Amino acid sequence: MPSNMIAIIGDLNPANRSHLATNEAIRHSSAALDSKVESRWISTPELAEPGGLDRLTGVSGLWIAPASPYKSMEGAMLAIRMARDRGIPLLGTCGGFQHIILEYARNVLGIADAQHEETEPNGSRLVISRLSCSLVGRTMAIRLQPRSLVARAYERTTVQEMYYCNFGVNPDYVGTLRSGRLRIVGSDDEGVVRAVELEAHSFFVGTLFLPQLGSTPAEPHPLVSAFLRACLRECVSRKTAPA
After folding, report:
1. Residue pair 57/238 in contact by the 8 Å Cβ criterion
2. Tell me, what CATH number does 236's domain have?
3. Of 33, 51, 160, 215, which sits 20 to 30 A from 134 (CA to CA)?
4. pLDDT per residue over 190-233, tens digit each?
5. Which residues contact 189 (CB under 8 A, 6 or more apart)?
6. CB neighbours of 54 closer than 8 A, spacing ≥ 6?
7. Number of domains forming the structure of the chain
8. Helices (H), 52-148
9. 25-37: per-residue pLDDT in tens?
10. CA dihedral in degrees (80, 82, 86, 87; nearest 10)?
11. To 5 degrees, how large is the angle CA 122–CA 125–CA 131?
C-alpha cells in the first residue's frame, strides 16, 4: 500500500453525491498541500472478515464515510476502534460521526448495548436516535469550542456547513458523553451536538455535517486539509520510527 494512503471506510456508491465529494475533497486538499495523498475505498464487510483489519496496514489515516446503515456495522466499528487505539488520524462525517459516538459509547463509556435507531428502532439504549427535524439538504450555523482542534482548523469559532442526515446523538446521552475524553466541540444554536474530537489523539474528529460538500479546487475545505496534514505527519513519523 502506498505510504501516503488514506482508507475511506464505507460502501462506495458512485451515485451518492457525498461519496463523490469525499474523493474530490481529498484531491483538492492534497493539491493545495502539494503532497501526493492517495485514497482507497474499503468496504465495511471486508473489514469484518477474519483478518480484515490487515487491509488497513500501513494507512496514514481513516475517513469513515457518510451513508449508513453500512453493510457491516461491525466492520466500520472495528476500523474506528483501531484508529482510536493506535492513534491513527481519523475523520468521520455524517454516518461516520454517528458510528464514532456508538463505538465510544460501547467500548469506552461501558454502554455495551448502545444502539443506532436506524438499525435497531426498538433498541433500549438508543445512543444515536432520529433527529426531531431532518437535516437533509440544510445548511446551518455551528459554534465551535475555542482552542479545539476543529476551531483551529477553521481559524474561527462560527461556521456554516451542510448536512444530509436524519440521525444524531440522543439528548438523553449527552451528559454521559461529556464524562469521557471524546469532547463535544461543535454545537448548533440550540446546543445540539454537531462535532466531537478525542483528547490526546493526533486527529480523531467526527462531524454530523459534511465538510466535503463545501470543498472546491480553489478553496479546499480547511477541516479536510487539517486531516490530511495529520495523515502526512503520521506517514513521516512512521518512516522515521526506529525499526
Report:
1. no
2. 3.40.50.880
3. 215
4. 899 999 999 999 999 999 999 999 999 999 999 999 999 999 99
5. 140, 141, 143
6. none
7. 1
8. 73-86, 95-107
9. 999 999 999 998 9
10. -10
11. 75
